Prior knowledge:
Six copies of one chain form a homohexamer. Chain A contains ten helices and 14 strands. By secondary structure, chain A is α/β, with parallel strands linked by helices. Chain A folds into two domains: 3-228, Ribokinase (UDP-N-acetylmuramoyl-L-alanine:D-glutamate ligase), CATH 3.40.1190; 229-330, no CATH class. The two termini of chain A are 30 Å apart.
Amino acid sequence: MKKIITLGEVMxxxxxxxxxxFFQTHSFDVEFGGSxxxxxxxxxxxxxxxxxxxxxxxxxxxxxxxxQLRRNGIDTRFVKLLPGRMGVYYLxxxxxxxxxxxxxxxxxxxxxxxxGKDLNWDEVFEGASWFHWSGITPALSKACAELTLTxxxxxxxxxxxxxxxxxYRSNLWKFGKEPHEVMxxxxxxxxxxxxxxxxxxxxxxxxxxxxxxxxxxxxxRFKDLQYIVKTDRISHSSSNNTISAILYGEKKTYSSKSYxxxxxxxxxxxxxxxxxxxxxxLLHLKPKEAIEFAMAAGAIKHSVPGDVLLCSLQEINDxxxxxxxxxxxx
Amino acid sequence: MKKIITLGEVMxxxxxxxxxxFFQTHSFDVEFGGSxxxxxxxxxxxxxxxxxxxxxxxxxxxxxxxxQLRRNGIDTRFVKLLPGRMGVYYLxxxxxxxxxxxxxxxxxxxxxxxxGKDLNWDEVFEGASWFHWSGITPALSKACAELTLTxxxxxxxxxxxxxxxxxYRSNLWKFGKEPHEVMxxxxxxxxxxxxxxxxxxxxxxxxxxxxxxxxxxxxxRFKDLQYIVKTDRISHSSSNNTISAILYGEKKTYSSKSYxxxxxxxxxxxxxxxxxxxxxxLLHLKPKEAIEFAMAAGAIKHSVPGDVLLCSLQEINDxxxxxxxxxxxx
Amino acid sequence: MKKIITLGEVMxxxxxxxxxxFFQTHSFDVEFGGSxxxxxxxxxxxxxxxxxxxxxxxxxxxxxxxxQLRRNGIDTRFVKLLPGRMGVYYLxxxxxxxxxxxxxxxxxxxxxxxxGKDLNWDEVFEGASWFHWSGITPALSKACAELTLTxxxxxxxxxxxxxxxxxYRSNLWKFGKEPHEVMxxxxxxxxxxxxxxxxxxxxxxxxxxxxxxxxxxxxxRFKDLQYIVKTDRISHSSSNNTISAILYGEKKTYSSKSYxxxxxxxxxxxxxxxxxxxxxxLLHLKPKEAIEFAMAAGAIKHSVPGDVLLCSLQEINDxxxxxxxxxxxx
Amino acid sequence: MKKIITLGEVMxxxxxxxxxxFFQTHSFDVEFGGSxxxxxxxxxxxxxxxxxxxxxxxxxxxxxxxxQLRRNGIDTRFVKLLPGRMGVYYLxxxxxxxxxxxxxxxxxxxxxxxxGKDLNWDEVFEGASWFHWSGITPALSKACAELTLTxxxxxxxxxxxxxxxxxYRSNLWKFGKEPHEVMxxxxxxxxxxxxxxxxxxxxxxxxxxxxxxxxxxxxxRFKDLQYIVKTDRISHSSSNNTISAILYGEKKTYSSKSYxxxxxxxxxxxxxxxxxxxxxxLLHLKPKEAIEFAMAAGAIKHSVPGDVLLCSLQEINDxxxxxxxxxxxx
Amino acid sequence: MKKIITLGEVMxxxxxxxxxxFFQTHSFDVEFGGSxxxxxxxxxxxxxxxxxxxxxxxxxxxxxxxxQLRRNGIDTRFVKLLPGRMGVYYLxxxxxxxxxxxxxxxxxxxxxxxxGKDLNWDEVFEGASWFHWSGITPALSKACAELTLTxxxxxxxxxxxxxxxxxYRSNLWKFGKEPHEVMxxxxxxxxxxxxxxxxxxxxxxxxxxxxxxxxxxxxxRFKDLQYIVKTDRISHSSSNNTISAILYGEKKTYSSKSYxxxxxxxxxxxxxxxxxxxxxxLLHLKPKEAIEFAMAAGAIKHSVPGDVLLCSLQEINDxxxxxxxxxxxx
Amino acid sequence: MKKIITLGEVMxxxxxxxxxxFFQTHSFDVEFGGSxxxxxxxxxxxxxxxxxxxxxxxxxxxxxxxxQLRRNGIDTRFVKLLPGRMGVYYLxxxxxxxxxxxxxxxxxxxxxxxxGKDLNWDEVFEGASWFHWSGITPALSKACAELTLTxxxxxxxxxxxxxxxxxYRSNLWKFGKEPHEVMxxxxxxxxxxxxxxxxxxxxxxxxxxxxxxxxxxxxxRFKDLQYIVKTDRISHSSSNNTISAILYGEKKTYSSKSYxxxxxxxxxxxxxxxxxxxxxxLLHLKPKEAIEFAMAAGAIKHSVPGDVLLCSLQEINDxxxxxxxxxxxx
Lengths: 330, 330, 330, 330, 330, 330
């Protein structure tokens, strides 16, 4: 059983039920989610050993967050309980021509003050095959940026493959550094980068004409880079998207099938499901199969409420291999 | 800030949750709604000053109705609490090929006995720019028909622009008068009429070959008429409609974009959202922009549960201007 | 008023609300359903006298099951309360490319031990026009297989028309007999068979090249056979199917319209709704009208949550005759 | 199996969930209830044959009401579907020092216009042992007052025992008659009267010093009277009551135990549960046992949500006989 | 109609439904509450004109908070929409021997950064009779402490009566000042102080042997003080308390009845309900009646879910005057 | 950190919400529970390392059960996924004089067929301080009886303290052995027995006059017995119990305080909470403190919904030490 380590904040997710707007709701559905833990949970559901590095406030809300990671099969030995507050995000599910809406309230959370100083990296990475991070963590605070860099160095020192989802978000990066002051060092330590043209632009503060230019630059500049992965999404409406993905090796390129997602249940976490599928695929499958598996994982997540892909290997393989879908399985 | 006055009944709306049928439900979702107050609430959400004229029973159900108007930003200074009962409508949401169904239980409600005699019209219309009524009110009772006429006269006396949604409903008009005995006088006092061919036929008890004939007749007969507005809807199923609208000035005609509404959440109140958008548009925009704004407001309402459009100006402008929709706004 | 008798197990149905997966749910919606009682309930809603033969455990869960049959208009005089357990099925509603999933827990239920020895067949069939069974019952246990045979003989002895939905399910038939040891005798006693090629193959343990071969064989072999009925379904996804049906007489064939079911609410019981519509149709209409009525009933069931079609004759006739659908009925 | 006939309106009951107030609720729990049908339902749960006479509007709300009677085991053969509206009552559950509150909206309901002219009394009363009415029905309308009188005459003509719960409510009796113009004739035809001093005062428009005076008057005046039954309730708060009852024969008096009801779940229908228990008791038990059974039935109803006592004979007998209560039954 | 001004933060309140613990919940009931707005809302329900001074973040959560104030009848003209975050408090309802638990997450909220600089005090206090503040506001931040002082000066300058609920909370006061550096100046400007011995000790940083000593000190030191009010509560368990209150004038003392609160629904906001009742009482009643009204208001709040007393004047007067409680009001 | 091993079945628990009866419910709240895992979960919440031995069906229901154990902090390394069905118990919460009711449907579950043959006992008991079993497991099946005996031998072989809750249930023991054929051998291997007189009688098939006789017999007969523990419960009603406990050493006896449990939320699992508290207490405290801690744990569980005590050490210590309870903790 492969062991995977993930690092990142997990927030309390508060959503009005169904299609209600924030203005009219009288209750919130409670979930916990965060990009990197979502990636990990998808793989834990497939039987892999996934340990997540994070911090929660040492109160009942933090305990519940930790319990929910465990429920999803994640090893929480390295979850720290600290003073402070729980990061929160409010999510309103869109429908039709109305967009989904997220209000972040994560500033000054326990995680954003987490420096990981008391983590024993030998214990953390013992037996691990893969480490996954995202561009959200270094954007949160100075402490988090440093923790990300440290964790990458510790991982690579031990020969562990590293994947990173650049995931540039303009409303973060408030702590005094620009992305290009932080990200390039992290990208150098990363073997598999998930990103689009815009992410590369923002993280490197450079301009690119198209993704080919990005790709050429990246394989030249980042010596340990094995793959760049890019997803494409067309949003016909909040309820209906088309998605596909491409896996770029330095020499070869592998394209996935395209999926029509005509009745979207929950778009949040679909990129994380894709990333989980990608890591699983690169660890167990050939590149072409890996990108198909990843895209099927990302596609089917759109049907599952919450942040986390809760689908079995068989369900994903059936979808990837074009097995009849939509029938009742008895 | 423009001030708008609206007049009409607000009912208790009782709906089985989700797609349940009346026969099988064990609870009702509670909303309050009525065509004209819905029109007002959409504009109150955009920051306009909207006061609604209506009456409720003086009990906790009526107080709750009044409270809900306030929550939606409506000025309830002119809401009267009277003896009697609350008007009710039962709404079953359709799906696919199954139609939505409404059972009205509004007979003899407090509003239907409301004659408005103790309204101080100077106070009501002080500072107002617009007055909106619909053909539902005069159809309810003799008292309501007279109140509508009085309110129109009082509005026009003060130079206030008047819009009316003819909204002919065959299951009303039980109090002893035919529509054509009541409606023409009201239409004469109206500057902006929202109606289709069938509404004109029923309200005037005349026949028309097509809408062009209607339009020519109307601008000739109703001297103060500035605009006629007509919406077109194709119901592919309860879940999927196509809509568009046309604004007819005496000389010029303005057509809106057409919207594919492929995953309808709640169709009720979409005409009211359109009317609210129209009034807002005619008060603030050029005619072409106004009809686009109105149609975008009507379209996006299909995604909001309840009777009332709860969407910001920016959301509607984004849709009207073709901004990318369906992405997650963070 | 026609009287119909149905026979079969009714199970407790436990479903996570909305689109939740089993893994994540914290509550189950409770329904009761079973193929043959579903068929009966659809007809009871249309005013027919339907009595169902079944057995429940003599505890509050069994009483509730019986009460729910009564609520749906079914005559429960012949429902037995026995020792034992309630059959259960867990249902997870799929969405998009994710399939719905059923976990059966019906082994050793009160019904599976029900031999019907104390049923008074004269009372059961007094005044009855039709008897309906399905291939699920004889697959459950030796007792149930024998009860099915007995009931068919008793029905045919009294000249009652018999319909059977072969409904082959591979995960049943665990009691020591193969389908072909049991089903042929039952099919001989059946006048209207609902089945596809695969059902015939499994029940007769023979191979057929296509349905024409099936049809020719059947009318030759089963002397009392009046109609074979076959439905065709294309599953684009869990949310979107296309369906149609064909009614084969020995000489003539009648095809229904095809329906696009683009926003499926609940697929379970749609075949039963079709069967209910078929029986109603064959009792009251001409063959072409009957298959159209049946297919409309089956189609509109996809919009109703739960196992049972709760739609009026008028709703189904409107759909079958192409009346405008999807408008709000006030 | 004894057969019981009951007569009366069944209303749609709409309650905010839990302890919410009308002003703050966003949903209503849906139940159906009415005094006499509640009495019948308690007995149907005990296996008696109970048929209820009533009328509902011929729409889905009325169909659901009828279905719910059937679910509760009531024979609905004599339920009529008429034009008109469903009677409604809004119920807010009190707690502690806050009273429960009922808002009636039953005026002009289908039942209030029901004259029962097309009832075939021979069919209705065939095989019946008992007929139960309450003082609510004659208070609703002229039609209902006449229907009550007719039904009583028809029952007594056939030698059927009649019980009546006088149940005086001041907010009814709006149709032009005073209680004393209507009730005495009905009381003369009644063998078992359930009432307190105030009920007798209002129904006879006479004054009584105490219940002894009432009792003496009643047995003298009403020649067919066999029993008067009176319950006593002390309301410490909405959550905590003490109750007991006395059964007065002309010669002998039987007192029940007193019950401390310290955590009331739902007080509505507790008098009806008592009446159901009384009828059952007088049909099957000695007077002392009957009043104990009735009071235990009334007491335990306070623990059951909704209008209807859903408790088995054994549960009630256990309580009446002082069996250990409050343990978990496994 | 008296006009009342209140000042203070309103938070989003998130509670697990029923008796669930934070650790196990999957949804939060959503309310909005804050001590001073709760005081105001109780009076608005009684028909008084109440305007609340506060600030919310300018997003949908803040808009909803403002809408909810309006629903409760509060004039929101002076509510500011600012950048920043919504203050949150998580509330777990206790039961029996388990305490209720509150987790505050209000640091750095929009309100805590609100300095009120752009309030027009002439507009705010026009026509006002009373101003109410609490010791929570000056404890939040330097800006809030200054705003409180300013508002008190502005109120007293205009001859408006001022009440203050000292409400000392040890987990606030984090901004660098001790209570005794801030509170005495505010108390000097207050006419009616609600507080117990501990509040006085903490706010003045002095020691007192008993409340008599407190009282004597207070009337001597605070020249404009008219009343001190103290409530006494015995917590038998989370579900069962006994409460009473005393109103101390300089010369005379008035004690309220004591209430047994044996089935508590929601304890939060009961002190605010008491304060609302007190202000109403002092404005409309004699002192003895005022303290009885206030205590009845505080007592009955324990039966209402949410932060706010939603009870009519009549309900409170009935309770205060010993009217029968706990009966069903029809 | 002490390590505890527990063994036993965990069932799916299905309960109607609130106080609803089985007959009337339309949904079930979903929990997972079983006596021994409940014991373990209480200790896991206090930070102890608890591993549970059990088996679930290898389907999504079983996966969810396992996930829920993890959420509650239990180490699930030794949970087996097998063919078969999930054991179920239906729970109806009583209220007032109405008893709670449990319907078991656990026959032939995956656990009942679990023989534990592939457990590596060295791994299971590595580092463990305590092993806990109950009399439910050997009552389920021959396989389970043998597994219990094996586990006890393996535990004692390694010097691990063993506690057993005799927990005699008459509706189990259906597999062909009487309790006295199985239990004595298990009791001999147990150091701490939790049981009352009736349990001893049934398990030994002997008669005892009183508990003193039981105690004397037990310490004489079972050489390794260190403590017998007995709880006493008086059920005033389903909502109100009084409980206390006694810890009997061979020489000394320790009695706990008695608790009035006046507003019971959920009685299920309270004995398990007590047992968890007892094990914790005997591992960390003196005997008198241990029995007080255990009884406080058992008492406070009555306030927590579900099978499992989710209360912190501090909450239990506060209760045991008489700290003020029922106040809001902020």
